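User: Batch of two.

Assistant: Item 1 of 2:
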Amino acid sequence: MDLEDPGRDVQVGRQSPYPGEFRRDAIALYRASGGRRTYAAIAADLGITGETLRTWLRKDTVRPVPEYRGGGAGESPAAELARLRAESTRLLKAEKEWQPEREILSRAAACFAREVK
């Protein structure tokens, strides 16, 4: 039991049929969508209810990201902007390449979730 947040992670009644790894993956999938998909849409892909996913997200504590304070040593704003644009392009390209695999894994997770129920 977490002493800073009493009641968190305390399960009354039966144990959840979903393993912790499945919950963490579901949360990561929702966050990776960047708000482009709803709880219900992602939950449907995974074979769970939207409310279940919303509850998992609410219970998941996210550590705050430290504030960014500028580029590397001696990097000008123009150089930093160019570097960040190149990185953004690379990440968008990688996301498009991984999208089919993500969809396949989502379907596999949904099958697994149905079997666990």
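Item 2 of 2:
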Amino acid sequence: MRVALVVPHWGKDYIRARDTRGIAGCWPTPGLQYVAAMLRDAGHSIVFLEGYFYSNEEMVDRVVESGADAAGVYVISILWDNAKPFLEQLKSRKPDIFTFAGGHGATGMPVRLLTESPHLDACTVGEGEYTSVELISALERGLPLSGVDGLVFRDGDGSIVTNRPRAMIEDLDALPFPAVEFSEMERYFPSFEQVSRLPVMQMLASRGCTGGCLYCYKMYGHRIRLRNPVLVVDEIESYIRRFGTREIKFWDEHFTYSHDHAAAICDEIIRRRLRISWWCSCRGDAVDPRILRKMSDAGCWCINFGVESGVQKNLDTLLKHEKLERIEHAVRMAHAVGIKTHTTYIFGIPGETYQEGLRTIEFAKKLNSFTVEFFPITPFPGTPLQKGVEKGLFGTMSDKLGDQGMLLERPCFVPFTMTAEEIMKLRRLSYVRYFLRPSFLFYRFTNIMSPFQLRAIYHGARSLLQMAGEQLGSEWKRLTARRSA
């Protein structure tokens, strides 16, 4: 069969859709590339379309012209409002095409998606590789869809049927490498703040996370499954040969969960003498000097630590099960072996106050990471936070899925202890106070690793000036209102 795999258009109001070479950048969708590889190996023809580069109308034209028999659409919450018109336009042009959705959004709310769009025929829930292959095979052979585990679909009478859940993929090594050849890889331009050298590719060395954070949806489960380190490095080497790749970004949720596994990957990179830089994410309580030195020797240049808050009470609310002292120690250890850090923080945690948000900014400055990001917290579908909000706990949120992006205008969730204006003020202040420190500016300018990062400084300066202007405007309005009162 001919299968189109589509990422809906990101929308004119979403920052990443306006400029793929801006500071936010854009990445291909690894889950969809894995599905493409599985369908390719099963003998199906693939069309891969990316909403960063095309409008919904252009992608509908291409799907129709390709003669596709089925179309799989990648859905996360912020893309659903753009996926719906794509599905409607596609069905109006090609009524007999079978449409299905996958991804975190389809996994977290399949019934809602099928209810809201009569043009969607099914959702794959969880890891989609085997489910998608079995779905397309059933369609091709005229078999009932009730036999496909991990599928929620619309029956002939219009009722929504939920099949048995699909078990997690135990043997990740049985999966083919992602089918990057179907993506227009040369058009993706990743984030300046998380990449030092181009070309760059993304990878997974494991799936799953043992954590139970309040804000996180575990599509890959709470148990970590590891790939064979030799196959991981085989994939790295294939990207070096095919694309001249100079850097790898690992998307693993918990890269150093197993020190033996992480060390084996490092040893294999070193044994093959691969000249590759890479970036990964770790928990603060899952690193020590030994593994950090090994990672540095193998080319790791930066680690992302999800700090989230500089107030222990708020970390406990998030169910992080980490101590601020341990996180700080981990960052210091990484810096000591020459690995830079990228730390992330969130504002609007249930129970958090504005003053506590200011303490988080000060903690971020104390850690002094090479790059940082500050976000308003988002109760994504299926997360414990979202379920608590629905029960009237924690605070209030918008019921529009499209509001769940990291937009600058207004947070989609506001706890009872803060206002939306305070959250956005904290976000502006955080970037201005962090990046405009003379000592930090000196640090960044003396640690430029490639011409690529000169663009990071340029775009970052533009964003900072905009935020500083917004903050000054906000303060001026506040003072004017006080005088008039």
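The radius of gyration is 23 Å.
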